[in-house]
């Protein structure tokens, strides 16, 4: 099957993540700690012996994250699900397009994913919103793309 890559540009902070989960399906959303008026994305970060909870800004392109642990800028961290402890790093050799550090991945509903760099301070990230199998109907006369967030 041939695929086509389409780049969609949206204004900064025009989208927010409503549902994010780990590889095992546990929700990462934390309504008890809102950021920018929305439930934050709760994860565990580790760098060396330092380990703590971080609440990530759910607004795509905004980085008002809340750290309860001091992690120096420029270091590569490990990221874990706070419920089951699964490592959020994308397995294999995929790396950041900007700094070549490892990437993490959150899962969105209906096959969407959010990928980001594990280097603190690098803001490279990708949001994949379209489930290709679901969207094949576009070829058959429908002209709407369903966003999967």
What does this protein look like?
By secondary structure, this protein is mainly β. It has one domain. It is built from 1 helix and 8 strands. The strands form 2 sheets. Strands 1, 2, 3, 4 and 5 form a 5-stranded antiparallel β-sheet that branches. A 3-stranded antiparallel β-sheet has the order 6-7-8, with no helix packed on it. The protein is globular, with a radius of gyration of 16 Å. The two termini are about 25 Å apart. The C terminus is likely disordered.
- How many DSSP helices? 1
Query: Biggest sheet, open or closed, and with what strands and sense?
Result: 5 strands, antiparallel
Question: How far apart, in Å, are the first and last alpha carbons?
Answer: 25 Å
The beta-strand count equals 8
> What is the N-to-C order of secondary-structure elements (H for helix, E for strand)?
EEEEEEEEH
Question: Oligomerization state of this entry?
Answer: single chain
Output the radius of gyration.
16 Å
Overall number of structural domains:
1
Per the principal axes of the C-alpha atoms, what is the gross shape? Answer: globular
Give the helix level as a range of percent. Answer: under 10%
Overall pLDDT: 85
Low-confidence stretches: 135-149
Strand fraction band? 25-35%
Instruction: State the secondary-structure class.
Output: mainly beta
